[in-house]
Design goal:
137 residues; mainly alpha
Length: 137
């Protein structure tokens, strides 16, 4: 029975996390949603690989190709966010000397956000329904 399938249960829970954060990012790009969406993508990839290996099925479809692109784009966004945090933590109370670098990173982050927005908007979560159906059967 599908409700007893631990892989399916895990898949669906991560898919819920993915969909929740995708909706958040469609409204506004924020640090936490970027991180959580990337983690969910990693977990979905792993879950799908485990399922494929355990069941040894010739699966008709894999994860949508747009997932890899989105993961990569959001990775750039995340790198910039982490660079800003690291600089601020290293600067202590006197961050005035970091302002040029922080302004540059802010501009990069804005560009990354504009670049990632179409990928976020165009991703069709319905494509995961076919994969869910494969795991259920």
């Amino acid at each position: 029975m599908p409700e007893e399938n631990p892989i399916l249960i895990y898949w669906q829970s991560e898919l819920d996390v993915f969909n929740k954060n995708l909706l958040l990012l469609r409204e506004q790009i924020n640090e936490e949603a970027v991180h959580d969406l990337r983690v969910a993508i990693k977990k979905l990839r792993s879950c799908f690989r485990i399922y494929s290996e355990l069941v040894k099925k010739n699966l008709k479809k894999g994860l949508p190709a747009s997932i890899d692109s989105l993961f990569s784009i959001l990775g750039k966004q995340r790198d910039i966010e982490m660079s800003k945090k690291l600089l601020l933590s290293m600067g202590g109370k006197n961050t005035a000397f970091l302002n040029p670098i922080l302004v540059y990173l802010e501009l990069l982050q804005d560009q990354a956000g504009e670049y990632s927005r179409p990928s976020i908007q165009e991703l069709e979560p319905e494509k995961f329904a076919a994969l869910t159906n494969q795991i259920q059967t």
